[in-house]
């Protein structure tokens, strides 16, 4: 007897996925939808990719699906996975399996195929991820995932300590799902993940990077910084000195960690919940070098000279190690570098900001200019109350930036209405580096409103 919820899930299961399940079952195998789709559909968000788990060995699954007219790609046959493509939609289809010992705490030594779906569910990480659904048989939930999902609890399947020892990446996954679902982590699971967090240094750094990027993408990095800092610092040791670092500055009411958490929350708010990935990384890392750059003056006040430059270096190093795409890394490092760059609500100041961004992250200045203002705004409201007024000034700067960009702002040599050939002809300079130097001077003059970016005016400037 199907419950209302099972009826809803059956209706919401996309037809392309249903076709995969039905084809396998018509051939005498068992097949279930598992993992993320079931979890998200129970939450009322059935947009997740569909993964299927089946009793059919992958060779048989591939043959059955092909016979049913479905395209099949052998995407991960070593662990029993093929990808069926129906109406252009991929459905990962994996044979019931369990994992063998994890002697290197990273990769299972072996994958063993099994015949009972419950065994397959038991190898999964958290109860909310260990449910299977079939449109007629309903929900298969041996570990209470539906209850934990409703209560917003992340709980390891089985004995937590053993599960994190098998695969330390699950430590970060627990934090990612807690952020994503606004869930709490069940106490025994929390204790085990704290104990196993140091093992994250055994995990391939690009996998760590993917999970961290996933945590930032939930928009709840602030929660992770406040509640799971030991995990984040185990994943990125460069973060560790932020905790408890007293800034001894009249501009700061919080330690670097709490300030950073507030900035992470702030960029979500100011960017309408959709900040660029680079802005999220920059919020996390903008003050990472403050502890290393700290100095005290005779009055006992703290200073952080050079922390944006050093922070940008740390950002490049950390994000490079975590295999975050180069474009995102360059953009995040540019934002960290310029987060204290002084700006005013004038067109020349906005053009200078665009040029600095262009130099640090070529080709990304326009989107990053808004991101930088959001970062500065979040930074201002996360400082001492007396700094918050600056956030209002930033609104005026944003208005100037918008006006300037829509009027065709000039911040690159290529935006000038003249080119190298004009310099050679009008100035009589030889082709070579001298031409670039003249263009750079001209660009500065235009940015400072000394000459309008009109061809006649620029030619006159060249002749003068
Ligand atoms: P997302 O939307 O983040 O992709 P997901 O649930 O699909 O969520 P995946 O990482 O794609 O998560 O993994 C698919 C499923 O495989 C999970 O729901 C979980 O059941 C299982 N799984 C993935 N990684 C692990 C792991 N390291 N240990 C145990 N089970 C895992
Ligand atoms: Mg997935």
UniProtKB/TrEMBL annotation:
The keyword Transmembrane helix does not apply. One of its GO terms (molecular function) is nucleotide binding. Its cofactor is Mg(2+). The keyword Ion transport does not apply. Residues 252-356 form the HD/PDEase domain. CDD domains: HDc, NT_ClassII-CCAase. This is HD domain-containing protein.
């Amino acid at each position: 007897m199907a419950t209302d919820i099972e009826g809803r899930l059956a209706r919401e299961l996309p037809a392309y996925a249903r076709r995969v399940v039905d084809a396998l079952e018509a051939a005498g195998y068992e097949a279930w939808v598992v993992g993320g789709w079931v979890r998200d559909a129970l939450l009322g968000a059935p947009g997740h990719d569909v993964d299927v788990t089946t009793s059919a060995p992958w060779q048989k699954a591939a043959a059955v699906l092909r016979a049913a007219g479905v395209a099949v790609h052998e995407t991960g046959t070593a662990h029993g996975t093929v990808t069926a493509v129906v109406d252009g939609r991929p459905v990962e289809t994996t044979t019931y399996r369990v994992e063998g010992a994890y002697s290197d705490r990273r990769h299972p030594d072996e994958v063993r195929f099994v015949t009972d779906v419950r065994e397959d569910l038991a190898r999964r990480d958290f109860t909310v991820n260990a449910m299977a659904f079939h449109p007629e048989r309903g929900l298969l939930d041996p570990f209470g995932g539906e209850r934990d999902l409703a209560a917003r609890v992340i709980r390891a399947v089985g004995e937590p300590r053993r599960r994190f020892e098998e695969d330390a990446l699950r430590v970060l996954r627990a934090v990612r799902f807690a952020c994503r679902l606004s869930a709490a982590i069940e106490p025994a699971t929390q204790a085990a993940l704290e104990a196993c967090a140091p093992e994250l240094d055994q995990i391939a750094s690009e996998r760590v990077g993917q999970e961290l990027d996933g945590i930032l993408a939930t928009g709840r990095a602030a929660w992770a910084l406040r509640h799971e800092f030991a995990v984040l610092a185990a994943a990125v040791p460069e973060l560790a000195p932020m905790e408890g670092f007293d800034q001894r500055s009249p501009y700061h009411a919080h330690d670097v960690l709490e300030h950073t958490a507030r900035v992470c929350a702030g960029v979500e708010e100011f960017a309408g919940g959709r900040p660029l990935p680079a802005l999220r990384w920059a919020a996390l890392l903008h003050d990472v070098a403050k502890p290393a750059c700290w100095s005290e003056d005779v009055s006992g006040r703290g200073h952080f000279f050079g922390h944006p430059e050093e922070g940008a270096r740390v950002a490049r190093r950390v994000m490079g190690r975590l295999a975050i795409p180069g474009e995102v890394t360059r953009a995040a490092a540019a934002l960290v570098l310029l987060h204290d760059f002084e700006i005013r609500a004038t067109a020349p100041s906005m053009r200078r900001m665009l040029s600095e961004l262009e130099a640090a992250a070529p080709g990304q200045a326009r989107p990053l200019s808004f991101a930088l203002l959001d970062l500065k705004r979040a930074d201002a409201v996360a400082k001492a109350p007396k700094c918050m007024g600056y956030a209002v000034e930033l609104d005026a700067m944003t208005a100037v930036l918008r006006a300037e960009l829509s009027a065709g702002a000039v911040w690159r040599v290529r935006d000038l209405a003249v080119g190298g050939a004009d310099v050679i002809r009008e100035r009589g300079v030889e082709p070579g580096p001298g031409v670039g130097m003249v263009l750079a001077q001209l660009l500065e003059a235009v940015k400072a409103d000394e000459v309008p970016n009109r061809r006649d005016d620029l030619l006159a400037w060249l002749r003068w």
